[in-house]
TrEMBL record, chain A:
GO terms for biological process: DNA-templated transcription. This is DNA-directed RNA polymerases I and III subunit RPAC1. InterPro entries: DNA-dir_RNA_pol_insert, DNA-dir_RNA_pol_RpoA/D/Rpb3, RBP11-like, RNAPI/III_AC40, RNApol_insert_sf, Rpo3/RPB3_RNA_Pol_subunit. It comes from the Eukaryota. SMART domains: RPOLD (SM00662). Belongs to the archaeal Rpo3/eukaryotic RPB3 RNA polymerase subunit family. Residues 10-269 form the DNA-directed RNA polymerase RpoA/D/Rpb3-type domain. Pfam families: RNA_pol_A_bac, RNA_pol_L. The lineage of its organism: Eukaryota, Fungi, Dikarya, Ascomycota, Saccharomycotina.
TrEMBL record, chain B:
GO terms for molecular function: DNA binding; DNA-directed RNA polymerase activity; ribonucleoside binding; zinc ion binding. The lineage of its organism: Eukaryota, Fungi, Dikarya, Ascomycota, Saccharomycotina. Its EC number is 2.7.7.6. InterPro entries: DNA-dir_RNA_pol_su2, DNA-dir_RNAP_su2_dom, DNA-dir_RNAP_su2_hyb_sf, RNA_pol_bsu_CS, RNA_pol_Rpb2_3, RNA_pol_Rpb2_7, RNA_pol_RPB2_OB-fold, Rpa2_dom_4. Residues 114-179, 692-759 form the RNA polymerase Rpb2 domain. Keywords: DNA-directed RNA polymerase, Metal-binding, Nucleotidyltransferase, Nucleus, Signal, Transcription, Transferase, Zinc, Zinc-finger. Coiled coil: none annotated. Belongs to the RNA polymerase beta chain family. It is found in: Nucleus, Nucleolus. Residues 1-15 form the signal peptide. Pfam families: RNA_pol_Rpa2_4 (PF06883), RNA_pol_Rpb2_3 (PF04565), RNA_pol_Rpb2_6 (PF00562), RNA_pol_Rpb2_7 (PF04560). Residues 220-277 form the DNA-directed RNA polymerase I subunit RPA2 domain. This is DNA-directed RNA polymerase subunit beta. It catalyses: RNA(n) + a ribonucleoside 5'-triphosphate = RNA(n+1) + diphosphate.
Length: 273, 821
C-alpha cells in the first residue's frame, strides 16, 4: 500500500500558501490611548477580514512605492474613535461601558473605505471583519484613535495573519480491531476508553466498533491483547478551521490547486526534462 | 541580672550548658529601617547639640558676650553650626553608607540600602521581604553562618535564597512571617505572673536549680522548673484567650532544664524587631502568634493529620507557610528537585513582566514590559491572594517535549513562528533619557539656551522627527543619530540638536518638560521616554517556572512543526534531555494540569503538598484529560511536520506557563571588525559598550593549538590583534635602538641603528676618511656613520612594549634575525 504524501502538503498549503487578505500597513494619525501604536497595528493585522481573496490581485513590490497600491490590490479601512463621558450615565455607575462612550474599540469600528471601482465590486458584500466583536483597544474620556489601514493579499508562510485558517491538519483513520470478544462490565469500561459513539454494545453485551472515525486512540493496559489499535495509512480525515473569509471546502480545494500548480511548474521545469 | 549572667557563664564554662548559637534564628532579630533611621537621627541631633555647645563654650572662653535670651546671638550661634540633619539622612539613604561617630553598635558601615528595582513585581515585592545577615559575614570564610538551620522554620524561606556568594546570607521571610515594628504592651505580664504564683524578682533565689523568669531581658521573678512549665502553659492559654491584658504576640519561651542543653529559664519577650508568625493553638482552636525563640521548645504539627494527642500543642495553618511569596508561586514545587525551585526564585525576579500598573506615568530609567501577559492556568492559591494577576509575568504556551530538528539541543527551545507572529512573548523596553541644558551653567548665570528652534538657518530634515516646538513628535521612530530635541544657543546664535545614541531604533513615547523647584524660570530640563520594541529573537532567553531556562534557537515555520490528532501544534518545543538530570517533575505535572485546565476552561491549583502518594496529580489530571477525550498520561500521537507521517512514539504535550527573561541578545551581542585599540599595547579594547573585541583567552588558545589550526591562531592572536611592523637592527638585535635618519641632499631617509653607528666626530678625530654617502644625520643634526644593517619585522606590538619595560629596568632584549640575508 503506498502512502499518499499529498495530504501533508495540502495541509501545509492551507496554512501557509493559500492567499488571504489582511492588514499590512497601518497609518496612525493619532493614538492617545494606552496601547502602543505597533501593538495596536499588530492587533488590527490579526483580524480576519471577510474579503474574497480572488477579488484582489497581488501587490507588485517592484513597482514604485507611490504607485504600488491601487484599487485592484488594496483595501482601505479606517478607524476613527474617540471616547467621551456619557452625560446620561446613572449615578453611581462603575461600568466603563455605561460611564463612557466608546470605552472599548471593537473590530466592527473598522470602516471600509471603497476605492475606485471597489464600491461597485463589493456592493453585495462590503468588507468587514469576520468577527465584529474582537476587542482592539480600550479608551477613556479624552483619548482617541485615528488611523488608516491598507489591506493586501498575502500568504501564511509570510505572516500568520495571512493564513486563511486558524488551523488545518489531518489525522489518520483509526482502526479498532477487537480480536477477542469483550463482554459485560469490561465492555462498558472499554466503551469509556473512547469518545462516546465509537464503541457500541450489542444485545449480547459484547463491544463492537460503531464508528471508529470519531475515535482518538488511547492505550490501556487492561485491553492489551484483546484489541489491536492502529491507523489506516491512506485514509485521511482533514480538520480545517477557517478564519471566516472562505468556507473550509474552498480553502481545501484551493490548497489542492496550489499543489497542482507546483506540480505543473515542476513538470514544466527545464531541470526536470 | 549581672549575677544571672555570671551564673550562666560559669555554667557554660563548667560545661553544664551549651552556648547560644548566634547563627540560629532563635537568637536573632531583625534590624528594621525605621529603627535605624531613628538611631541615625538621634545621633545627628546629638551631634548638632554638641556642636552648639562647643560654639557657646568657645564664646565663653573667648570672653564674648553670651546671652541665651538674645535672639541675634542665638541665631548667630545656630547659623555657625550645620543643622541639616535631613541632608545627612538623605545621604545615608542614597548611598547606604553610615557616617557615625559611635558606629551605632552595628557591624558594618556600608551597604545598608538597596535600590528597590522594578523589573517586575516579583522582584519588587521580594525587596521588601529580604533580610541580610550583614556584610561582615559575607567575607567570612566559614560556611556555618550560611547554613539552613531548623530553627528558622516558618520564619525564613528555605528555598528563596540566591545561589552564589550571598547564598544563605540574603534570606527572604516566609510569606506569613511578620516583624514587630513596635513593642507590645507588656505592662500586665508581671501581674499575670504573680497571679500564677511566681515569686517576685527581689525574693531570695539563685542558681540553675530555680527557673528564672525574664521579661524582655529583665528578671521579673523566680519559680521552680516544674512550676515554670505550668506558668508558661497558663500564660499561653491566657494570651491566646485574650482578656488578661497579655498581647497575642507575646513570646513565652520556656527552656526546660536539660543535660548540657540551653540554659534553662522562662524567657518572655514583647519587644520590637522580633519575627513572628501565626499558627493554630490546639487547646483553644484559636490563632497564636509564635516567635523564633519559643518555637524551638514547642510542638507544632505541620498538617492536622499528624497531630499526636499529648504531644502537639499547635498546628500550622498551612504547610506552605514556610515558603516565601515567590517560592509559593512555583507550581507543584514539591515535585521538583530543590535547587530548581531556588533557580526559579532567581529567574522569577529576572522575568520581563509587568513592573507596575501606572506604566504610562512612570519615568524609570529602564523598564521591561511584557505585552502578552496572561494569568497562569496552573497557579497556587496564593497567586490570587497576592493579586498577582495585576502583574502578569508570562504566557501560557503549548509545550511539546520532543527532540525535533536538532535546534532544541542543549537547552535551546524552538518557538513556533506563527505563535511569534501572533504575539507570543512580545515585550517592550522603556528607556528614559534626561536632557539638561543647564549642565554647564553656573548658579546665577542667565539662561542662554532655550528649547525650540531659533531664527537662524538649520537643516530642514530635522523637522521630520521634531515638532514646531523643537521637541520630538510622539510616536515617531528614531534611529541612531536622529535629532531628539532642538535648542537654541543664544551666545552662538545657532540652533543645535541633541541626537539619539543607541544602535537600536526606538519610538518616542513621552516628553516631559521639567521646571526647577521654584518654577519661576524657563524650563531647562526635559525627559524623553523611548519605547524599544523587543519581539522575541533568536538568542532571547525564556524559562518555565521550574528553573528550566532556555534560549530561543529558531522560529520554526508552523507548517513544519509536529501536529497532534486534534491539529494542535506546539508554541514551544523543548528537548527531553532537559529533564533526567534536573528532575523537574513539577514541570511535567504543570504541563498535565495546564492541559487539563485548558481543555475544561478552568484554572488549576498548584499549591505544593496538596497531593499525596495515594492521590497523585497524574491520576487527578489524567482523569480530566480522559473526560476531555485525551490520553490519560498527557502524551499524544503526533504527526511529523516534515513528512506528515505519524511519529513512532507518543509525544508529551501540554500547557506550561512560560516566562520571558530580561536577558536579550539585543543587549548582549558583540561584533567588531576593526575598532578602538588601547594605546599602550595597540590591542583591541574590551567591553561591548566601547565596541571592543572578545578576548581569545588561554583556553581558547589551547583549543586552537589542539586543533592544529595554527593559521587561525596567528590570525586571532596577531593579525587581528596588535600586528605591527617595526625596524630592527640585524647586527645588534635591538628593536629600540633603531631610528629614522633625517633625509639629506643625496640620500633619502633610512632606518639606522643608533647603537651600531659611531659619531662622525670619532672618525674625524682618528683621521679616518668617511664617504659622504655613509654619513647620516639624526633629528638634532648630529652626524653618524654606520648602523645600516637594519630590516623590518612583523611582531605583536606588545613585544615592543615589553622590550621598553624591560629596558626601563636595565634589561636588554636581543633578537636573532634569520635568515641573515
Amino acid at each position: 500500500m503506498s502512502i499518499p504524501r499529498w495530504p501533508m502538503r495540502s495541509a501545509e498549503f492551507m496554512l501557509a500558501e493559500v492567499p488571504s487578505v489582511a492588514a499590512e500597513t497601518v497609518y496612525v494619525f493619532n493614538n492617545t490611548s494606552v496601547i502602543q501604536d505597533e501593538v495596536l497595528a499588530h492587533r488590527i493585522g490579526l483580524i480576519p477580514l471577510n474579503v474574497d481573496p480572488d477579488a484582489l490581485v497581488w501587490v507588485d513590490p517592484a513597482v514604485d512605492e507611490k504607485e504600488r497600491y491601487n484599487d485592484t490590490n488594496t483595501i482601505v479601512m479606517s478607524l476613527d474613535v474617540s471616547c467621551s463621558k456619557n452625560p446620561h450615565a446613572p449615578e453611581g455607575a462603575t461600568d466603563p461601558k455605561v460611564l463612557y462612550r466608546n470605552s472599548s474599540v471593537y473590530a466592527r469600528d473598522l470602516k471600509f473605505e471603497p476605492q475606485g471601482r471597489q464600491a461597485e465590486l463589493f456592493k453585495d458584500q462590503p468588507v468587514a471583519p469576520c468577527d465584529p466583536d474582537i476587542l482592539l483597544a480600550k479608551l477613556r474620556p479624552g483619548q482617541e484613535i485615528s488611523l488608516r489601514v491598507h489591506c493586501i493579499l498575502g500568504i501564511g508562510s509570510d505572516h500568520a495573519k495571512f493564513s486563511p485558517v486558524s488551523t488545518a491538519s489531518y489525522r489518520l483513520m483509526p482502526v479498532i480491531d477487537i480480536q477477542r470478544p469483550i463482554v459485560g462490565e469490561q465492555a462498558k469500561r472499554f466503551q469509556k476508553c473512547f469518545p462516546s459513539g465509537v464503541i457500541g454494545i450489542d444485545e449480547n453485551d459484547a463491544a463492537y466498533v460503531a464508528d471508529a472515525r470519531k475515535g482518538y486512540l488511547l492505550r490501556h493496559e487492561e485491553f492489551n491483547g484483546l484489541v489491536k489499535l492502529g491507523r489506516k495509512k491512506n485514509h485521511f480525515i482533514f480538520n480545517v478551521e477557517s478564519t471566516g473569509a472562505m468556507p473550509p471546502t474552498e480553502i481545501f480545494l484551493k490548497s489542492v490547486r496550489v499543489l497542482k500548480n507546483k506540480v505543473d511548474y515542476l513538470r514544466n521545469c527545464p531541470i526536470g526534462q | 541580672m549581672i549575677l544571672f549572667m555570671i551564673r550562666k557563664l560559669y555554667t557554660l564554662v563548667a560545661g553544664d550548658c551549651a552556648p547560644d548559637n548566634p547563627d540560629a534564628t532563635q537568637h536573632q532579630e531583625v534590624l528594621l529601617g525605621g529603627f535605624l533611621y531613628g538611631m541615625i537621627i538621634k545621633e545627628k541631633i546629638d551631634e548638632y547639640l554638641q556642636s552648639i555647645q562647643t560654639q557657646i563654650t568657645a564664646d565663653v572662653t573667648r570672653g564674648a558676650r553670651v546671652s541665651f535670651f538674645d535672639r541675634t546671638y542665638m541665631s548667630k550661634v545656630l547659623g555657625r553650626v550645620n543643622g541639616n540633619i535631613g541632608q545627612k539622612l538623605q545621604y545615608f539613604l542614597s548611598t547606604g553608607n553610615l557616617v557615625s561617630q559611635s558606629g551605632l553598635d552595628l557591624q558594618q558601615v556600608s551597604g545598608y540600602t538597596v535600590v528597590a528595582e522594578k523589573i517586575n513585581f516579583h522582584r519588587f515585592i521580594s525587596h521588601f521581604r529580604m533580610v541580610h545577615r550583614g556584610s561582615f559575614f559575607a567575607e567570612l570564610k566559614t560556611t556555618t553562618v550560611r547554613k539552613l538551620l531548623p530553627e528558622s522554620w516558618g520564619f525564613l524561606c528555605p528555598v528563596h535564597t540566591p545561589d552564589g556568594s550571598p547564598c544563605g546570607l540574603l534570606n527572604h521571610l516566609s510569606h506569613k512571617c511578620k516583624i514587630a515594628t513596635e513593642a507590645s504592651d507588656v505592662s500586665q505580664v508581671p501581674l499575670a505572673l504573680a497571679k500564677l504564683g511566681v515569686s517576685p524578682a527581689h525574693s531570695f533565689a539563685a542558681g540553675p536549680d530555680l527557673c528564672c523568669v525574664q521579661l524582655d531581658g529583665r528578671i521579673v521573678g523566680w519559680t521552680t522548673h516544674e512550676q515554670g512549665k505550668l506558668v508558661a502553659d497558663a500564660l499561653r492559654v491566657w494570651k491566646v484567650e485574650g482578656g488578661h491584658g497579655l498581647p497575642l504576640d507575646l513570646e513565652i519561651g520556656y527552656v526546660p532544664p536539660s543535660s548540657k542543653g540551653q540554659y534553662p529559664g522562662l524567657y518572655i519577650f514583647g519587644g520590637h524587631s522580633r519575627m513572628m508568625r501565626p499558627t493554630k493553638y490546639l487547646p483553644l482552636g484559636k490563632e497564636d502568634i509564635v516567635g523564633p525563640f519559643e518555637q524551638v521548645y514547642m510542638d507544632i504539627a505541620v498538617t492536622p493529620q499528624e497531630i499526636e494527642k499529648g504531644v502537639h500543642t499547635h498546628v500550622e495553618w498551612a504547610p506552605t507557610n514556610i515558603l516565601s511569596i515567590l517560592a509559593n508561586l512555583t507550581p507543584f514545587s514539591d515535585f521538583n528537585q530543590s535547587p530548581r525551585n531556588m533557580y526559579q526564585c532567581q529567574m522569577g525576579k529576572q522575568t520581563m513582566g509587568t513592573p507596575g500598573v501606572a506604566l504610562a506615568h512612570r519615568s524609570d530609567n529602564k523598564l521591561y514590559r511584557l505585552q502578552s501577559g496572561q494569568t497562569p492556568i496552573v497557579k497556587a492559591n496564593l497567586y490570587d491572594e497576592y493579586g498577582m494577576d495585576n502583574f502578569p509575568n508570562g504566557t501560557n504556551a503549548v509545550v511539546a517535549v520532543i527532540s525535533y530538528t536538532g535546534y532544541d539541543m542543549d537547552d535551546a527551545m524552538i518557538i513556533n513562528k506563527s505563535a511569534d507572529e501572533r504575539g507570543f512573548g512580545y515585550g517592550t523596553v522603556y528607556k528614559v533619557e534626561k536632557v539638561d541644558l543647564a549642565m554647564d551653567r553656573r548658579r546665577g548665570d542667565p539662561i542662554t539656551q532655550h528649547f525650540g528652534f531659533g531664527p537662524d538657518e538649520w537643516p530642514e530634515s530635522w523637522k521630520e522627527k521634531l515638532d514646531d516646538d523643537g521637541l520630538p513628535l510622539i510616536g515617531v521612530k528614531v534611529e541612531e543619530g536622529d535629532p531628539i530635541v532642538a535648542y537654541y544657543d543664544e551666545t552662538l546664535g545657532r540652533t543645535k540638536v541633541k541626537t539619539y545614541h543607541s544602535s537600536e531604533a526606538a519610538y518616542i513615547e513621552e516628553v516631559k518638560l521639567l521646571g526647577d523647584d521654584t518654577a519661576d524660570q524657563e524650563a531647562q530640563n526635559l525627559t524623553i521616554k523611548f519605547r524599544v520594541t523587543r519581539q522575541p529573537l533568536i538568542g532571547d532567553k525564556f524559562s518555565s517556572r521550574h528553573g528550566q531556562k532556555g534560549v530561543c534557537s529558531r522560529k520554526w515555520p508552523t507548517v513544519d512543526m509536529p501536529f497532534s490528532e486534534s491539529g494542535i501544534q506546539p508554541d514551544v518545543i523543548i528537548n527531553p534531555h532537559a529533564f533526567p538530570s534536573r528532575m523537574t517533575i513539577g514541570m511535567f505535572v504543570e504541563s498535565l494540569a495546564g492541559k487539563a485546565g485548558a481543555l475544561h476552561g478552568m484554572a488549576h491549583d498548584a499549591t505544593p503538598w496538596t497531593f499525596s502518594e495515594s492521590d497523585t496529580p497524574a491520576d487527578y489530571f489524567g482523569e480530566q484529560l480522559k473526560i476531555a477525550g485525551y490520553n490519560y498520561h498527557g502524551n499524544e500521537p503526533m504527526y511529523s511536520g516534515a513528512t506528515g507521517e505519524e511519529l513512532r512514539v507518543d509525544i508529551y504535550i501540554g500547557v506550561v506557563y512560560y516566562q520571558r527573561l530580561r536577558h536579550m541578545v539585543n543587549d548582549k551581542f558583540q561584533v567588531r571588525s576593526t575598532g578602538p585599540v588601547t594605546s599602550l599595547t595597540m590591542q583591541p579594547v574590551k567591553g561591548r559598550k566601547k565596541n571592543g573585541g572578545i578576548r581569545v583567552g588561554e583556553m581558547e588558545r589551547d583549543a586552537l593549538i589542539g586543533h592544529g589550526t595554527s593559521y587561525l591562531l596567528q590570525d586571532r592572536l596577531l593579525n587581528s590583534s596588535d600586528y605591527a611592523q617595526t625596524p630592527i637592527c640585524r647586527s645588534c638585535g635591538s628593536m629600540l635602538n633603531t631610528q629614522m635618519s633625517v633625509p639629506r641632499i643625496g640620500s633619502i631617509a633610512s632606518v639606522r641603528c643608533r647603537g651600531c653607528s659611531d659619531k662622525l666626530e670619532a672618525y674625524v678625530k682618528k683621521g679616518i676618511y668617511v664617504n659622504e654617502a655613509d654619513i647620516w644625520v639624526d633629528g638634532h643634526g648630529v652626524k653618524f656613520v654606520g648602523g645600516d644593517d637594519t630590516t623590518t619585522i612583523a611582531i605583536p606590538f606588545v613585544l615592543k612594549y615589553l622590550d621598553s619595560e624591560l629596558a626601563a629596568m636595565g634589561i636588554k632584549m636581543k633578537y636573532n634575525i634569520e635568515p641573515s640575508l
